[in-house]
Specification:
The chain has 218 residues and is α/β, with parallel strands linked by helices. Helix content is 29%, strand content 28%.
């Protein structure tokens, strides 16, 4: 796997380009704005877009998804729970107040355990990790990288006070879906909120207060 990272949008979302080195197929994770810059990077690297993947349906993470879908002709994939939830009037109204357009329907509805193939050497597994939102997911490459969206940050976890959030559910998701992964798994969060842009699961188990106190300290 080859990885490119762009910080995009008004809320500084980390957009990941997950690339198969052999075929140059790419999946675009969380295009939360600056669509033209994402498109330029794809052209610059001569990549072949395959998917637009959403770790969750919050508008700051998918604001550029529909424009890129139209320009690139590739499907948007999101967990079915968030695809439904964030197109409801109550949830859409909150993000409209922040200046975001409503979400359009996703083309692919993800479920826990689904596989996403990128080229001939990259395979992502969908881990459903609700709590930050009903359909939050992490994408795991099975070997090294875990793209955690807003479920797990470096030194923190996602907020749970937005519509559809549930703090206890998020802790359970981290405990049951993330902590069992290998210690050297690299955490690739949806925002650079910590003391470094990436971390390892081993480091988070030792230093992340939410894991140390609320999960391991029970």
């Amino acid at each position: 796997m080859k990885l490119e990272v762009l910080t995009v949008g008004a809320l500084a979302v980390r957009c990941y380009l997950i690339i198969c080195p052999e075929t140059k197929e790419v999946a675009i994770v969380d295009p939360g704005g600056d669509e033209g810059r994402i498109l330029q990077k794809i052209k610059e690297l001569d990549l072949s877009p395959r998917y637009i993947l959403a770790t969750h349906g919050h508008a700051d993470h998918v604001a550029g998804a529909w424009w890129l879908r139209q320009k690139l002709g590739v499907p948007v994939a999101m967990h079915e729970a968030d695809d439904h939830f964030f197109r409801q009037p109550e949830a859409a109204a909150i993000f409209a107040a922040w200046g975001f357009d409503p979400n359009e329907p996703a083309d692919i509805l993800l479920k826990d355990g689904d596989s996403i193939n990128i080229g001939n050497s990259v395979k992502l597994t969908v881990l459903h990790t609700p709590g930050h939102s009903p359909g939050s997911v992490c994408f795991y490459d099975g070997e090294k990288y875990l793209f955690t969206g807003d479920t797990l940050f470096v030194g923190a976890v996602g907020r749970a006070d937005l519509p559809g959030g549930d703090f206890e559910q998020m802790l359970r998701s981290i405990e049951t879906k993330i902590l069992p992964l290998p210690e050297d798994t690299i955490i690739c969060p949806g925002h650079d909120y910590g003391d470094q842009p990436f971390s390892t699961l081993s480091r988070e188990k030792k230093t992340n207060p939410y894991i140390v106190e609320f999960i391991l300290g029970r």
